[in-house]
Target: Methyltransferase domain-containing protein
Amino acid sequence: METALNRSKFSWAEYFSDKKTGGHRYSTEEFLFKEAKEKLFHLNGGKSLLDFGCGAGELLIYYVPNYERVVGADFSNSMLFEAEKKMWQQNYKNVDLILADDETIWDKLNLSFDRITATEVIQYMTPEQIDAFIQHASNYLNEEGKIVLFDIIDPKLYSLWKFGWFSQNFRFWKTLPRVGMGCFKQISAILKNRPRDIIGDSHSPYLIEKIANKHGFKTEYVKSMYYEYRYHTILSKDIMRPLRICEALAEGSRPSYFTT
Ligand SMILES: C[S@@+](CC[C@H](N)C(=O)[O-])C[C@H]1O[C@@H](n2cnc3c(N)ncnc32)[C@H](O)[C@@H]1O
Model:
């Protein structure tokens, strides 16, 4: 008999194995088009793109016409199947879809990219996975390339959002039942061996910045346009870094990059 103690470990790969949409706030074409437009603005050009965790291709479909070469990767077969259907319907020939996760993807790539992006994916990764992802991605980035991580969940903003802070009729007393319900859900999730929040984990902008700095990137923080509690991070190679390290060493101080 399955009990809380012997229940098999939860895995996101299993969770997504039969999913067919990315769970955007609205699944209308109009909304997805607007979301994609916001993302294309921040991607800001480039000729080749890797969309890691592309899911059902709901945004990818809008990226493809803007790039010469596109690779979409995801560890969910069902999601990739949906993405493939969309690409086929549009007769797009410049896109490859790869079944892979954050570890296996790198050996399956045969080109490097001007842009490497991931939308609503970082929340399913641990800080260690994010660190390894950025390190690997760095090796597959063309000169002046960028890694653009979209819609990361901000822990502070997400808590506020859950308690209704952003709603028009926010009243403090209304948050109390929500707090109670939140605690109940967390305990119940732990007992069911599920993640504390099915939306995944939040990661602070400082954590992402620290990891990015460690791998020689500087970061730009951008608020998400369509999700109150999410933010984007744009990572570009910090070309001034060696100079700053030399300056710091000359002054006899330890550059902050070394402290991670
Ligand atoms: C919320 S969906 C977003 C999909 C797509 N980026 C979009 O915005 O429509 C998250 C996707 O990331 C994929 N994913 C999560 N963790 C992954 C990992 N470690 N390796 C590969 N894919 C992953 C899931 O299978 C899922 O398709």
Q: What stands out?
A: DSSP finds nine helices and seven strands in the chain. Residues 199 and 248 are 41 Å apart (CA to CA).
